[in-house]
Amino acid sequence: MRPAIFPLLPDPGCLLLLLVSWLFNPARSEITSLDSGNIDDILNNADVALVNFYADWCRFSQMLHPIFEEASNVIKEEYPDKNQVVFARVDCDQHSDIAQRYRISKYPTLKLFRNGMMMKREYRGQRSVTAIADYIRQQKSNPIREVQDLEEISSLDRSRRNIIGYFEQKDSDNYRTFERVANILHDDCVFLSAFGAISKAERFSGDNVIYKPPGENAPDMVYLGSLTNFDLIYAWTQDKCVPLVREITFENGEELTEEGLPFLILFHMKDDLESLEKFQQEVARQLIGEKGTINFLHADCDKFRHPLLHIQKTPADCPVIAIDSFRHMYVFPDFSDLLVPGKLKQFVLDLHSGKLHREFHHGPDPTDVAPGQPIQDLASSPPESSFQKLAPSEHRYTLLREKDEL
């Protein structure tokens, strides 16, 4: 008679250990790898996507990988639908075409996408699981505050830019388009909405969207286009929410320098709104055609004393206009010349032509010297760029020096 064979049972302690391990270490979520074949489909179908642009040889990229994966695990538990939130990555060495498409200039870069559209502001917060997860939760929160009484409109903060939508019902194509715009531009404007009986007084000709600009007495502006045409209402809202002349702060300085455009800056005292208004008017009048070649900014003289000292100015000299080319700083000769037709525009054109740089090193161009006056080669050294110091830190990123590195 053959002896009976009994299977060995696992030790109860081992079973308990396996169970605890399974409970506290759930299956790790997979980071989606993007390439030319899948990137558009995946991003277009994602409500929110956070994409890590990295290179394997970059030590900062290597440090971020486990943090990014753990943040993805945390968020996947809260938003299990695969299209609600996508964590993805692009190997920029393997897919240089994608890196060039999104203008990657440093590793690692975390960019946010909504329904396939890349947001202007990338993630620049702390590289930690908690901070990244909190950032995604914030991006998933409703960007529109629903108004319960039109009296709330009269008490709005008029130092902010407010966009208000009045709709018959929330479940409508008009509101869905408005909501999509708000998701993209909520960092630049305050978005509010009112529905049904509450909004009826403002819907005399149908659903309506208005813009309330900063200033207690500033008149409202009404959107007159189709409320279901996303491109039209987005362009209109962006024009209202993102001013031609923006304020530069220490918080947004890195973001502005990464746009890669020289700065034309008005330094003014915080309460000197008259000088700011004149500057804004002249920029709009003389330089609207230069939008895209230079950034128009204004800065608080007290906060930015260091750049002023760089050009041998103090807050007592404000208002002062200057250009920072990221190589040197150049001063507009006299603020009172701002109102001289074409003077500010010529200052910018002289930057583009290289004339400002030449004259700082060699004195006036021969064509600018009065007849009979000797031409002198006046060697000088313009102040170095001050705002370049606000650019991304080499202690946080691997900065790409050459564009063809991608």
TrEMBL record:
Species of provenance: Dicaeum eximium
Region Disordered, residue ranges: 361-392
GO cellular-component term (any): endoplasmic reticulum lumen
Pfam short name (any one): Thioredoxin
GO molecular function terms listed in the Swiss-Prot or TrEMBL record: protein disulfide isomerase activity
Domain Thioredoxin: 18-141
Role played: Mediates thiol-dependent retention in the early secretory pathway, forming mixed disulfides with substrate proteins through its conserved CRFS motif. Inhibits the calcium channel activity of ITPR1. May have a role in the control of oxidative protein folding in the endoplasmic reticulum. Required to retain ERO1A and ERO1B in the endoplasmic reticulum.
GO biological process annotation, one example: protein folding
Subunit structure: Forms mixed disulfides with both ERO1A and ERO1B and cargo folding intermediates; the interactions with ERO1A and ERO1B result in their retention in the endoplasmic reticulum. Directly interacts with ITPR1 in a pH-, redox state- and calcium-dependent manner, but not with ITPR2 or ITPR3. The strength of this interaction inversely correlates with calcium concentration.
Keyword Heme in record: no
Subcellular location: Endoplasmic reticulum lumen
Chief localisation class: endoplasmic reticulum
Signal peptide: 1-29
Protein name: Endoplasmic reticulum resident protein 44
Record key words, sorted: Chaperone, Disulfide bond, Endoplasmic reticulum, Signal
